[in-house]
Design a protein that fits this description.
This protein is an alpha+beta fold. The chain is built from eleven helices and 15 strands. It folds into two domains: about 200 residues, Gcn5-related N-acetyltransferase (GNAT) (Aminopeptidase), CATH 3.40.630.30; about 140 residues, Gcn5-related N-acetyltransferase (GNAT) (Aminopeptidase), CATH 3.40.630.30. An eleven-stranded mixed sheet has the order 2-5-6-8-15-9-14-13-12-11-10. It has a four-stranded antiparallel sheet with strand order 1-3-4-7, with helices on both faces.
């Protein structure tokens, strides 16, 4: 499909229909979640398919010479689960008014609320971000879908899409920032005395429970360890009344394809794994993903998911840890509010108008809440 006189757009029902080298050069190496390795593992493991309501429909942009100049990881969705930018209310309102909100298009990383690029461009390519957005909006019309959603995108993509008429939305996560710390004690030294003592007490109690901890990377993670982790993952899903989209095959497949970029913080009771936190390493960040535990130990979640992640980031010289969605309790452990971005193309005029009004009220409320939460920072006041 022509986007304009310079570019064309095609859709692909599997990432394997797209040349691996073309995808890799557009995606870059900074963020593992948009890599061919990650996205192919999600598909090949049966985690993202028609059965789970995540049907791949990846977009490829080509220039007049036929060269791939941009790609977008994209899915036709039959529901709004596994996205973490919630639009259930929009869907319900449209359905009550007689419309059909599903299926819709989702430019996203499945089941992963990880900020990063979504409109992936070849370095040096002249295709504007706005033109890529225009192409996605055209596809929405061609397929007679209700909407397109670009979620957890970068701020420049968000701004370009908003300028092109998409509806901009913001959200909030909690990220830890490395201020050049040489050790965990250096990080604690930047905190108020009370918060510093609290974290030390939590780490002491977690480490006094008789468990041992190991940080494992790549081929250090054996198949029995992945089997144990899948059990932890299922236990977490069961407790939260969610859906276990990720299959047993996904985790070892991810490890095979991403190698040392996969990091597992694992707790053992003797030789038996009892808990673990899965992370991926980017060029300058550690991304915390899934966690699970079978048993009950004091502060084990904080130790594996937050403190060991900080230890790892300091040792590896990474600038931040992104510990996933939700959780204001993270603030007292050094993870401060950070803005996330999404953009939404709504085809129906009336629904678009209603959502635009909602977002105009939501944005200042979120910004005000972030300002309020920032006052809870555990770090010393340098003023």
């Amino acid at each position: 499909m022509p986007v304009d006189d310079s570019f064309t757009l095609s859709l692909h029902r599997s990432i394997h229909e797209i040349d691996t080298a073309d995808w890799a050069i557009c995606a870059g190496a900074d963020n593992p979640f948009v890599s061919h390795e990650f996205l192919s593992a999600v598909e090949d493991s049966g985690s993202a398919d028609a059965r789970t309501g995540w049907l791949p429909q990846h977009a490829v942009f080509r220039d007049a010479a036929g060269q791939v100049v941009g790609v977008v990881p994209m899915y036709v969705k039959s529901h709004s689960y596994g996205e973490y930018v919630f639009d259930h209310g929009w869907a319900n309102a449209f359905e009550r008014a007689g419309g059909s909100y599903y299926p819709k298009l989702q430019a996203a990383v499945p089941f992963s609320p990880v900020p990063g690029p979504r409109l992936l461009r070849r370095p040096g390519a002249t295709i504007p971000l706005a033109a890529m957005g225009q192409g996605l909006a055209q596809i929405c019309g061609e397929l007679d879908l209700s909407s397109v959603h670009v979620t957890f995108c970068q701020d420049d993509e968000w701004a370009a899409l908003a300028e092109a008429g998409w509806l901009p939305r913001i959200g909030m996560q909690f990220h830890w920032t490395n201020a050049g710390y040489g050790s965990f004690d250096d990080f604690l030294g930047a905190m108020s005395s009370r918060k510093r003592k609290s974290i030390r007490r939590e780490r002491r109690d977690a480490n006094a429970a008789g468990l041992s901890f190991r940080t494992l990377r790549g081929d250090q993670i054996t198949r029995p360890m992945w089997d144990a982790f899948f059990g932890f993952y299922q236990a977490t899903v069961d407790r939260k009344w969610g859906s276990a989209y990720l299959t047993r095959r996904f985790f070892p497949m991810l490890s095979e394809r991403l190698g040392d970029r996969v990091v597992l913080m694992m707790a053992f009771d003797g030789a038996k794994p009892v808990a673990a936190a899965l992370n991926l390493v980017g060029a300058d960040a550690l991304y915390g993903r899934n966690w699970g535990c079978k048993g009950d130990w004091p502060f084990l979640h904080f130790e594996l998911c937050y403190y060991q992640a900080i230890d790892f980031a300091i040792a590896e010289g990474l600038s931040r840890v992104e510990a996933g969605a939700q959780g204001e309790h993270k603030i007292q452990r050094g993870y401060l509010p950070s803005t996330t971005y999404s953009a939404h193309w709504i085809a129906h005029t009336g629904l678009r108008r209603a959502i635009a009004g909602f977002l105009d009220e939501e944005r200042p409320a979120i910004l005000a809440h972030m300002e309020e939460l920032a006052t809870l920072s555990p770090f010393k006041d340098e003023a």
